Amino acid sequence: MGAGFSGIGAAIRLLQSGEDDFVILERAGRLGGTWRDNVYPGCRCDVPSHLYSYSFALNPDWQHTYADQSEIWEYLRATAERFGVLPHVRWSHRVLDAAWDDALGWAVTTDRGVFGCQYLISATGSLAEPSTPLIPGASCFAGTVMHSARWNTSHSFDGQRVALIGTGASSVQIVPSIQPTVEHLSVFQRTPGWVLPHPVRPIRDWERRLFRLFPPAQRLIRALTYWQREVVLVSAFTKYDGLRTALERQVRRHLATQVPDSELRAKLAPDYQLGCKRALPSNDFYPALTKPNVELVTEPIARIEPEGILTTDGELHLLDVIVFATGFHVSDNPIGEHVVGRDGHRLSEAFSGDLPNYLGTTFPHFPNFFMLTGPNTGTGHTSQIFMIECQLNYVLDALDALGDGPDAVAEVLPSVAEAFTEDLQRKIEKTVWASGCASWYQNQHGRNVAMWPDYTIVYRRRTRRFDPDDYVIGRRHEETAAAVSMA
Ligand code: N01
Question: For residue 44, which atom of ligand 1 is closest to its CA?
Answer without folding.
Answer: 48
